[in-house]
Amino acid sequence: MAMLSVLRKIVQEVSAAPDLESVLDLTVRRIQRAMHTQVCSIYLLDTITQRYVLKATQGLNREAVGVVSLSPTEGVVGLVGQRAEPINLEDASLHPSFIYVQSTGEERFHAFLGVPIIHQGEVLGVLVVQQHDRRRFDESEEAFLVTVSAQLAGVIAHAEATGSIQPVGNNLGGTAKIVQDRRFSGVAGAPGIAIGQVFVASLPADLEGVPDKRAKDIEREVAQFTEALEQVRHDIREVSKSLSQRLRSDEQALFDVYLRMLEDNALAGQVVERIRAGNWAQGALREVVADHVRQFSSMEDAYLRERATDIRDLGRRILSHLQEGVGSSEVEYPDQTVLVADDLSPAMLGLVPEDKLVGLVSVSGSGNSHAAILARSMGIPTAMGVVDLPFTRMDGRDIILDGYSGRVYVNPSDDLKNAFGEILREEQMIAAGLETLHDLPAQTTDGYRMPLWVNTGLTSDVERSLERGAEGIGLYRTEIPFMTRDFFPSEQEQMHIYRRQLEAFAPRPVTMRTLDIGGDKALPYFPISEENPFLGWRGIRVTLDHPEIFLVQVRAMLRAALGYGNLRIMLPMVTCMHEIEEAVEQIDRAVRELQEEGLDVERPPIGIMVEVPAAVYLTRRFARKVDFISVGSNDLTQYLLAVDRNNPRVADLYAPYHPAVLKVLQFIAQEARKEHKTVSICGEMAADPGGALLLMAMGYDVLSMNSNNLPKVKSAIRGCSLAKANSLLQRVMRMDDAEAIHQYLRTSLKKMGLGSLTRPSLPGRED
């Protein structure tokens, strides 16, 4: 237990360290003390020279730091890196790989334990402890060092990246070199290439998410900070005064503690110091608060440790006043803005003027999160889950975003900019060529007609979808208007929003999904806090528990459809017959109510979404109860493969072409057709040209996708025969590997002369 608390303390301290040098120095000192060894050292692999460089030591000669280096084939350190496993030796000098480096002074030490520092499968370096005695380190010591190394790997990777980005502010005068073409890997969110400048978006009063920015007017920043400080002092005095009669003296003393902290020049003075060194007030505040929190958190005394929470709270209060003082009118967005956020939310997509926004990057989330799906519908290249990106240090940096692979390149060289610029021009030419298909049907070379619909949610989707030749809406996400407000929209508000969609597409069908919140779609004014939200209270489960919300929404839909007759209502997350019956009963009630109010409304076609495994095996029974079936393949894939689509750690396991997924999709189509009901699909698989051909061959009646992919899918269908699509499907259904299936489809499209519809070959890609 003692070792566990030591480990927590080391990781906590190191995570808060301001730069790589501090991280390494703290690490070796803490480990040397915890393990009672004479030496602890860290060697990091220099990616340019491909040598292990001594970067920090406690016990060896300090002069050797940054000077001594070993190739991966030299020394026991090199062997640890080569094998990527621990090496524990009683006397390192007797090992055949041992190399004596005179300047280190390590000849005095015999016992040696080295463990690799591995992050995302790559060896970053080697962590070493040594002792005078000839002895083997025991199993518990080895286990401890391996555990520390695993915990530190991410922190070191992040600190390395932060150093290579080079922050603004008081480190500007340092010797850190800016590394060009620094690459960070995430997962593909929305396809395309973006070349631009970073603008970091942060949430209100989110201290940890505040970016560093160069102060344009230092005196103004100091004045804004001083004013915010005074406002917080005033707030605390007012609260203290109003509660003075109701609080005990010890509780009242807390306000005095806060005021003393604010009066203490250590906090305010340091913030002003960092502003004068070049960082804006919000970034300087974040740095100073983080320093103070780190110092208090590491103290032995429980009372002093609690002060870390107080400092954090004060920091947020000051930040809140600072943010109020910076109006949105003062924000200047670069002409080619790549919006970067810790956790990209749908609300953030509207921050930047549409004519300036060229790309989106999220540190959290995955390619199948709701934010990524919206980005695809807007046609904005996006990378998600770029977990190692030091986003707070990136504001204003040049960046290249590869939305096909989910990679971003910070501080790109001219050569890399030119290479990606060429691909960007090629993409624009292909897009211009696809526009000529607008008025042509999605019809195969042997005459089979495939209706192509779109998924919408944003007002701007309507115009974009019609421009690309959409024949209907297969999924209108009604939760989007709910997500962009501070309270539930009224029946009248909803009616106007829905009417715009129905009017624009009339007489073409518009399928409106009833409110689908929960999972990764949260409403700020209706929070749902659950251990596992994807297996929790979401979709139809919420609306059936709240008939007052459901009825208002259905009434708004029915009223909006008056005079158009093109509404279809779709129920999400259905798992049992009871849910369908109850929802249909509510819809019928809304129809009756409106008819009694004198409105000439009719009951529209009602359908369900098949997106949980339980619904798959009840498809035929459900089909007897409803008018149409629609498959939500994104969630269905997630539930079938037990892969959280928002978790970048398992993003590689989310495989739309997994043989089990394909088998289930084919089964659903067959079951629906047995009851002579139309079956559509509105997941992202329909937006992929290869996937669209397979779904067509499976017998899906309608494919619904984001509007930006519609021309590509139409081009694929027009360039292929139904017979060829059937033959592709038969071959694919005999294959047993998702990646092999994906590659086979890409190769087949190229052979059919449709290679331009697959993702382009990009610089830095291994495949």
Enumerate the spans where pLDDT stays under 50 for 5 or more consecutive residues: 169-175
The number of distinct helices, counting runs of at least 4 residues, comes to 25
What strand order characterises the main sheet?
A: 7-14-13-9-10-11-12-8
Structural Rg: 30 Å
Annotated CATH architecture of the largest domain: Alpha-Beta Barrel
Please indicate the percent range of residues in DSSP E strands (runs of 2 or more).
15-25%
Mean pLDDT: 85
Note the main sheet: 8 strands, mixed
In percent, how helical is the residue content?
40-55%
Structural category: alpha/beta
Using the coordinates above, name the CATH class of the largest domain: Alpha Beta
What is the total number of structural domains?
4
Report the span from N to C terminus.
46 Å
CATH superfamily of the largest domain: Phosphoenolpyruvate-binding domains
* Count of individual beta strands: 22
Q: How would you describe the shape?
A: globular
CATH fold-level label of the largest domain: TIM Barrel
GO molecular function: kinase activity; metal ion binding; phosphoenolpyruvate-protein phosphotransferase activity
Domain GAF: 19-166
Subcellular location: Cytoplasm
Organism: Marinobacterium lutimaris
Provide structural commentary.
It is built from 25 helices and 22 strands. It starts with a helix and ends in a 16-residue tail after the last helix. With 767 residues, the protein is α/β, with parallel strands linked by helices. The chain is 44% helix and 15% strand. Keywords: Cytoplasm, Kinase, Magnesium, Metal-binding, Phosphotransferase system, Sugar transport, Transferase, Transport. Its cofactor is Mg(2+). This is phosphoenolpyruvate--protein phosphotransferase. It is found in: Cytoplasm.
